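Researcher: Can you fold this with shikimate-3-phosphate in place?
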Amino acid sequence: MFPGRKIFLIGFMGSGKSTVGRKLAARLGWSFIDLDDRIEEKAGMKIPEIFKEKGEAWFREMESTILHDLVNYTDFVVSTGGGAPCYDDNMDFMLRSGLTVYLKLTPAQLKERLIKSKTVRPLLKNINASELINFISQKLQEREKWYSRASITIDGFEIDISHLISLVRQWKEQ
Ligand code: S3P
């Protein structure tokens, strides 16, 4: 039995968590939260600036704190940053607090998305186009051990929102 009406979307950078999260929340009539946006609001800085001025460890602490604060809320879908499940006890927290959904894509699919993306991502700052596929493959392999613990894994390349909704409804009825 899941204690809260909370859905956590997890997955690598560029996997479409925010786009899917917005659609899913709208269909459920729940709120949508973008964890990265919350961090930026609280810090009063954009993520690249946070990494530069405060460092990654500071960012991870903030990310974990804001994620854990969600324990007090229900009826939301949250898109988490690609690293969120892999630090602190964040994955355990999400697993015990609600439904975790992993949007899974291959390194090649992620590369195509990330090359086109306009979002500035500090972890990709010093990676050139020819190194990108290796970087993604390696990082994804490291992170897969957290991502793969999600309650539901779906193909993030072609997401069928209606199918996702039916999985969520099965969970809500439990
Ligand atoms: C990160 C992913 C980013 C953001 C930060 C770190 C990561 O979010 O949280 O740049 O460690 O993978 P997106 O997954 O939304 O790009």
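Model: Folded with shikimate-3-phosphate in place. The radius of gyration is 16 Å.
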